Amino acid sequence: MPVRPARPMTAMLLAGLALIGLAGPARAHDQLVGTDPVDGAVVDAVPSQVALTFSEDVLDISTTVVVAGPDGRVPTTPTVDGSTVTAPLPDGLPDGPYTVTWRVVSADGHPVQGSFAFTVGAFAATPSPSAAPAPGTTAPATPTGLFVGIGIAVALAVALVVARRAATTR
């Protein structure tokens, strides 16, 4: 009577599937979770600063915040404090539409960028195209752990088929 390797191979297949379940999600880039002023807001007066809040701490490397108002580019120097980036605005800026374009380095070392707009005073807000995905829609990182787990499961399934064929040809 031939030896049936089905039980050991089935155990190996189940172990491979368990590894897939244990594979954690890949780390995604930080996401912009809030701005002050809020994107699209109409505020009564020019704020003293713009603030961006991210899902995790950002690295204090090459951070840029460019504010453009009705009179052109507004001089500002951003600062990073954990997950918050602030850029002070000078006094005396006019009412009108403002666009804030930003770029930070995510905690995982990848750059993340985008823009948002707000309006000061009674001016009608004109929507500006945003280079950033909406909060919560940043493209996820490749789920490497999942691919490795699938590869292991496929390899185990192939080994099971080969072992069964070998057992039936004896």
Automatic annotation (TrEMBL):
Location of this chain's protein in the cell: Cell envelope
Signal sequence extent: 1-28
Metal-binding in keyword set: yes
Transmembrane segments: 145-163
Annotated CopC domain residues: 29-120
InterPro entries: CopC/D, CopC_dom, Cu-Rt/internalin_Ig-like, Ig_E-set
Keyword annotations: Copper, Membrane, Metal-binding, Signal, Transmembrane, Transmembrane helix
Pfam families given in the database record: CopC
Recorded superkingdom: Bacteria
PANTHER family hit by this protein: INNER MEMBRANE PROTEIN YEBZ (PTHR34820)
Protein name: Copper resistance protein CopC
Annotated source species: Actinotalea lenta
